[in-house]
Structures are given as C-alpha cells and as structure tokens.
Design brief:
The chain is of the alpha/beta class. The chain has 4 domains: 121 residues, Rossmann fold (3-Layer(aba) Sandwich); 76 residues, Regulator of K+ conductance, C-terminal domain (Alpha-Beta Plaits, 2-Layer Sandwich); 121 residues, Rossmann fold, CATH 3.40.50.720; 91 residues, Alpha-Beta Plaits. The chain has 14 helices and 22 strands. A 6-stranded parallel sheet has the order 3-2-1-4-5-6, with helices on both faces. A 6-stranded parallel sheet has the order 14-13-12-15-16-17, sandwiched between helices. A 5-stranded antiparallel sheet has the order 7-8-11-9-10. Helix 5 links the parallel strand 5 and strand 6. Helix 1 packs parallel to helix 13, helix 6 crosses helix 8 and helix 6 packs across helix 13. The radius of gyration is 23 Å and the shape is globular. The two termini are 18 Å apart. 42% of the residues are buried.
C-alpha cells in the first residue's frame, strides 16, 4: 500500500515510522529541512522537501499511485488544501485530515462528499475528551478503551504491591477464565504477550479484556472496591478543559474547573451551569488545600504547559487526590512522567495517531489502538471467509507467538476464548499484538486473490 504523509511532526513521524516497519511504501512531505534530515536518518521512507499544498510536490510524491493521503501538519488550512488537491489530482484515494480548529468542526459540511470528500477527520481535542470520559467510567483504571460499540471493555490497571494477584500464574485464574483475559503486561519498558505460565509482578501494568457486564469480575479478581465517581477537579480552562467540563455539566458529578485567567473564568462561567468555576493557580498548594483536593476522586490537569501539568499532578497526588490524569503533548515525555508516579497520561497527539492508524491496516480492520509505550497494539478485525484462521480450533491456528486473541464477537455473543474455541467467518476478533507481529497478522487476515 502506498501512503503519503504530509507533515513530519510527532504525529506524522510516528505514523511514518510505524508504517515503514510494516513494509508499506511511505512518502513523507515536509517543509522543514531539519525534520527531513531526521526522517532520512531514522526511517526507511522517501522524504520530499516541500509543501503538501503544492500540486507539483504532490505529483513528485506520486499522488496518482497513492492509496491513502494523511494530512497531519499543525496547520488546519494546509491539511484542508492538501486534501482538496488530492481530490482533484486522483480519482481513488482515501483522505485523512487532522483538524484542530473547533470552528471548522462546527461547519462539517466543508468535509462532505460534494466538496472535499475527506474520509476521516481527526480532531485531537474530541478524541482526547472521549478517552477521558471513558476513564471516568472505571476510575481505578489508568486506561480504558471500548470495542464493539462499548460491549467489550479493555482496561489498563497498575498492580500494587499488596494486590492478591502478585506472584500468581495467569493459569491460576480458573474462576474468571470465561469472563476476563489478560492480553498484555507492560513491565518497565518491556511489553509481554503472556501465556498461562507467566506471573504478575508488582508495578506491572496489565491490560484486561472483559464483557461490559462482567467488569465486576475484575474488581473481585484484583480485590478492588467498586466506588462511584463523585468529585472531579479540572485544572486548565482552555478549549479541552471547557469541552470536558461541558460534558460533565450534564452529569451528577460534583465538578470544579480551575483557571488562572480571570477573563477566561468569566467566559467559562457563562457557558457552564453546574460546574463551579474557580479563579486560581493549580500550582498553589494552599489554594488546592482550600479546595479540598484530598477528597477528589479524579484530578484532571489540562493546562497548556507540560511542566506545570506534571508539577500540579504530583502536588495533587501528594495532597491526597485518588487519581490524576495529566495532559502531555510530547510523546517522548510519556514514559518518563509515567515512571515518576503520574497515574494516567492523555495526549492529543497519541489520540490522533490512534484514530489515524485504523484507516491504514490491510484487511477489514474496524478499530486499532496503540497501547501505552507504543510497544504493542490492540486490534479489532473481522475474520473473512477466506482467512486462514476460520473453522479450526485456535490451538491449531499458526498464530504469531507475539499475539493473542482476547475476545471473539459473534453477533450478540461475546466469547473470551480458549484453545478449543473456533473462529467463524464474519466474527469480530479483538487481538493483542507486539508491533513485530502486525505483518504476520496481516497475512493471516488479508483477503486472498481468489476472493475477488
């Protein structure tokens, strides 16, 4: 598959790197010569110096032979113009655009088939707010993803020293084997796709898959108390903070939003009904104490300053906040801040990458999301009639050892599988896989030529 990526910032660079590792034909267009050199030194892709808004540059990149165009610059206007030219320079191309301006999102008709015909609009703010709302559904999880319209939950949970599962083999969880599957373990910098003999260690981040109605089984397995969410503090009243507060404004949750700028506080107060707007500095310890941060279930820090976000989160945690969620822009910072005690990190760039990658897989991939640390992925894919994995027991499938089927969705039925289970045509599968296993999985799931 040939893919043109416009923009070699963190989003474009990361996507290009991932696709190059999977042997796609990738061309990157970038104006900054320093970023061009970085691309050429690190990634095995073609890098072209120039603007993605130039028809001649797009022709040089091979737009007429391209399957997918990803416009991922920091300029919404450049991304829109690139898609406009792509629409008129070639007949058959999938167009993906990263759009940040909320004004554009309110006038979505410009993306319609009659005008730009953009296949996928990625709004990082919307993606990030959606991920934070999912986190609030399961407050003790550091990451929550929905699959099959929310009927299957994937949860990332950090194992504490006193957890009853520490030192236990996964094969010992017999009472829960039909309800819960541990699909991946992140241990330090290493990602493990576990087998039955693997054990869980303190500070492991484990990713569990469960049916939505059976999430309480995970509570019992990990000896967690199921508590409702009652108090939330948001620090930072920018566009993302306002969008999250607006969503919480309709819920029965005691929510406060802290903003330093007095004029912005007035604007927030006009737009919010039940959410309490406070004019203050999230780095002020005395101010946080006065606002009883010790009684807060979740403290969400969304200012535009990454260093302040980390400081405020650590301060909130030290003062007794049960959980902190911290906005981090730079992807390279995420492993570092996780290591110093930040509970959960949200990133607009990572949200954009997750949303974009699902459009770029071979076969019938419905949803795809990188896991924490980028070492593995969880994929929702449809099994086609001609796939090499249907109608035989999973134990007989030549499945990569770096991957595991976490759930089988068959109509209204959701199966947490074991070796005797068989995959049927049109089943939806949720799969954990290390990055190295992705090309092998694509071969298993790609439609054979005779299918046509």
């Amino acid at each position: 598959m040939k893919i043109i990526i416009i923009g070699a910032g963190e989003v474009g660079f990361t996507i290009a790197q991932r696709l190059s590792e999977e042997n796609h034909d990738v061309v990157v267009i970038e104006k900054d010569p320093n970023k061009i050199r970085q691309i050429q030194n690190v990634i095995d892709v073609q890098a072209i110096a120039g603007s993605g808004t130039s028809p001649s540059v797009l022709h040089e990149a091979g737009i007429k032979e391209t399957d997918i165009l990803v416009a991922a610059t920091d300029s919404d206007e450049a991304n829109l113009i690139a898609c406009f030219y792509a629409q008129h320079l070639t007949d058959y191309i999938t167009k993906i655009a990263r759009i940040k301006n909320p004004d554009y999102m309110e006038h979505r008709q410009i993306f319609s088939q009659d005008f730009l015909s953009i296949d996928l609009i990625i709004n990082p703010k919307s993606e990030m707010v959606a991920s934070m709302l999912k986190l609030m559904e399961v407050p003790w999880a550091c990451e929550v993803m929905d699959f099959v319209d929310g009927r299957v939950k994937l949860m990332g949970i950090t194992i504490k020293d006193n957890s009853p599962v520490v030192g236990r083999r996964l094969s010992s969880f017999n009472d829960y084997e039909h309800a819960v599957l541990v699909g991946a373990i992140v241990r330090g910098e290493k990602v493990i796709i576990p087998g039955g003999q693997d054990t869980i260690q303190p500070n492991d981040l484990i990713y569990c898959v469960s049916r939505r109605e059976e999430v309480p089984h995970i509570f019992r397995l990990l000896n967690l108390t199921e508590e409702g969410l009652s108090r939330v503090i948001i620090v930072g009243g920018g566009e993302t903070g306002l969008a999250l507060a607006t969503s919480l404004d309709t819920m029965n949750i005691n929510t406060k939003i802290i903003e330093k700028d007095g004029q912005r506080c007035l604007e927030l107060a006009e737009k919010l009904e039940k959410v309490v707007v406070l004019n203050g500095d999230g780095t002020d310890r005395e101010f946080l104490v006065e606002e009883n941060v010790a009684d807060v279930d979740i403290m969400i820090v969304l200012t535009g300053d990454e260093e302040s976000n980390v400081l405020i989160s650590l301060l909130g945690k030290a003062l007794g906040a049960k959980k902190t969620v911290t906005r981090i822009g730079k992807l390279s910072y995420i492993p570092l801040v996780s290591a110093i005690g930040i509970d959960t990190v949200v990133s607009p760039r990572l949200s954009a990458i997750r949303a974009i990658l699902q459009y770029i897989r071979k076969g019938k991939v419905i949803c795809e999301a990188p896991l924490k640390g980028e070492g593995a992925e969880v994929i929702e894919v449809e099994a086609l009639e001609t796939s090499d994995i249907v109608n035989i027991p999973l134990s007989k499938v030549k499945f990569p050892k770096e991957a595991i089927v976490a759930a089988i969705v068959r109509g209204e039925e959701i199966i947490i599988p074991r070796g005797h289970n068989m995959i049927k045509p049109h089943d939806h599968l949720i799969i954990f896989a290390l990055k190295d296993a992705i090309p092998k999985l694509e071969k298993l799931f790609t439609v054979k030529l005779e299918y046509f």
